[in-house]
Amino acid sequence: MNGSEEQDPANVRPHPFNVVLVGLPGAGKGTQAAQFARRHRVPKISTGDILRDAVARGTPLGREVAATLEAGGLVPDDVIVRVVQERLEHPDTARGFVLDGFPRTVPQAAALDALLGGRAVVVIFLEISPDVILQRLVTRRTCESCGQADTGAHTSEYCASCGGGFVKRADDHIDVIRRRLDAYVENTQPLVDWYSRRPAFRTVDANQPLADVARAFDAAVLECLGPGEIP
Ligand code: AP5
Predict the structure, then answer these.
(1) Closest residue (by CA) to atom 5 of ligand 1?
(2) In the chain, what are the domains?
(3) What is the set of active-site residues?
(4) In testing the pocket of ligand 1, which one of 24, 29, 65 has its CB within 8 Å of the most ligand atoms?
(5) Does ligand 1 come within 6 angstroms of the Cβ of 213?
(6) Is 34 in the pocket of ligand 1 (CB under 6 A)?
(7) 3-class DSSP assignment, residue 63
(8) What is the pLDDT tens value at each position of the chain, 231 positions in all?
(9) Residue 51 in contact with ligand 1 by CB distance below 6 A
(10) Can you list the pairs that 43-46 forms with residues at least 24 positions away whose Cβ atoms lie under 8 Å?
């Protein structure tokens, strides 16, 4: 926090690598965030990964949120903001970060602005046709160790990033997927409308192949920041 709390984040030039990804469940946020993080050497902060890890380890946070994740609902704003605040205090965020899955409500976005104390973010909306989503999520396998989705079209039993085994995510079942989509319409679509009024907001077509989405993602961030900002 830099003490510039009085600036309006809507009008402040974003820090080079403070990036927020929003989009429907299955739009490719986690996949693109991981690749962006590797390309630009910033941490990927995924609230879904943090919560699933807490559930798997049986921590107090995990016990608090387990039923919500299982049902496909949203964890309360105050709980998730506390989680993100703690994560953003880690020194590895000094050069910036890419946020995957947070914020997903307008109050969470307002809390993020307050946490950043005037440092604005680039917001990338991964826009995808709902027809594509179901197919992606019912066939998705994720690494049980690092949480990364299998992008290799089921060609290997093991994660290319860490060597962990692939499993089906507990919330990737059709009834839970439908509830996650409902939660998006109710809570996150208004957030997209809210962010879309900011100058550093861009929409990327997420129906394209992975590499094309990644190229469009980088180009959109660059466009928001201006030439020469991304090494
Ligand atoms: P979270 O983990 O954030 O889940 P989500 O938003 O539902 O998003 P997903 O992880 O399912 O999808 P994704 O967009 O990352 O897609 P992916 O890259 O994997 O949250 C889980 C739960 O935690 C929530 O339901 C909620 O309970 C709780 N939670 C988390 N954050 C919260 C918050 N801020 N507030 C309250 N509660 C919160 O891609 C999907 C599949 O498609 C993969 O198999 C991938 O390989 C494939 N794919 C991706 N891109 C392409 C492409 N271009 N072409 C072909 N295949 C592709």
Answers:
(1) 25
(2) 15-129+174-225 (3.40.50.300)
(3) 29, 104, 140, 169, 180
(4) 29
(5) yes
(6) no
(7) helix
(8) 344 445 566 655 566 589 999 999 999 999 999 999 999 999 999 999 999 999 999 999 999 999 999 999 999 999 999 999 999 999 999 889 999 999 999 999 999 999 998 788 999 999 999 889 988 998 888 888 888 888 777 778 888 888 899 888 889 999 999 999 999 999 999 999 999 999 999 999 999 999 999 999 999 998 998 765 554
(9) yes
(10) 43/90, 43/92, 43/93, 43/97, 43/98, 44/97, 44/98, 44/100, 45/84, 45/87, 45/88, 45/93, 45/97, 45/98, 45/99, 45/100, 45/102, 46/100, 46/101, 46/147
Residue appearing with tokens 């100058």? 199
